[in-house]
C-alpha cells in the first residue's frame, strides 16, 4: 500500500471508530435517561374495576418531613363516584391504610364535588376522574414508607356498583421530584382551604323565617355552591338565593344532643374552595 493510501486508510478508520464510539455513548445516554424517567415516574399499577380503575401516585421525596401522594380514580364515560358526603344517595369513599410500614398518619383530602341529578334527588361527586390528595407522615423520616391502601368506593351510571382496590406505593426520602408531582399539587390546590386563609370570605349565619332554615351571607361575591356537613345523623340541604344561600335542616337524630350543632360548610368558588365551621342552635328545629 502506498504511503498516501495508508494515511487515508488510517484517517477513515479513525473516523469510523469515533462515529461508532459516539453512537455507543449516545445509546447509553438514551438508556440512562429512560431509566431515570422510570425512576421518577411514581405510580402503582392500575387496579381494574367495572366502570373504573384506580392507582396510587407519589410526588417524590418528602417536603418538611411529609410526603404528598394521591389516589387517582379514572371513570368510564357517564359514570360518577362520590364525595365524602354523597348526597341523597350513594356511598362515600372509605380509605384504610392498615398494613402500611413506617406510617404515622395518612390524611385524605377531598376536592369539592359537583351536583348530579340521581333517582329524583341529588348526588355529590365526580365524573371522568378525581385525585384525592394524601398527606403522608412517616414514623421515622429517615426510613421509607410502604404505603398500603384498601379503598372501598362506588361508581354509578344507571346502577351503583361497589368497587374495591388494594394498592401499594413506596415513598422514600432519597427520591427526587416525580413526574406526578405537578399534577398532584394541582389537585391539592383544589382542596378547601381553612377559615384562617387570608382569602377566605367572612360568613354570617342567621335564622331564617322558620326554625329549620338559616340564611348564609358572605363578604364579597357569594360562592358558586355550598355543601353543608352536620354531625352523625344530621343532614342539611343548601339552596342558592338571590344574595347567598339558605341552609335547610333535612334530618336530625331522634334524641339530639343539647347545645350548638357544629356544621362544616364547603364554599366553592371558581378555582378554589374554603372549609368553614359554624355552630347552629338547631334544637328547636323540626325537619
Name its key features:
single chain, 287 residues, alpha+beta, Immunoglobulin-like, 2 domains, five-stranded antiparallel beta sheet, four-stranded antiparallel beta sheet, 2 helices, globular, disordered N terminus
Commentary on this structure:
Helices cover 17% and strands 45% of the residues. With 287 residues, the protein is α+β, with helices and mostly antiparallel strands. It folds into two domains: 144 residues, Immunoglobulin-like (Sandwich); 78 residues, Immunoglobulin-like (Sandwich). Strand 1 and strand 2 form a beta hairpin.
How far apart are the first and last residues' alpha carbons, in Å? 107 Å
> What does the largest sheet look like?
5 strands, antiparallel
The multimeric state of the shown protein is: single chain
The largest sheet has its strands arranged as 1-2-3-9-6
- Measured as a percent range, the helix fraction is 10-25%
- The CATH top-level class label of the largest domain: Mainly Beta
How many domain regions? 2
CATH architecture of the largest domain: Sandwich
User: Please, what is the CATH homologous superfamily of the largest domain?
Assistant: Thiol:disulfide interchange protein DsbD, N-terminal domain
Categorize the overall geometry.
Answer: globular
Total of helices: 2
Q: Return Rg in Å.
A: 27 Å
SSE arrangement, N to C:
HEEEEEEEEEEEHEEEEEEE
| Strand composition percent | 35-45%
pLDDT averaged over residues: 86
- What is the CATH fold-level name of the largest domain? Immunoglobulin-like
Number of strands: 18
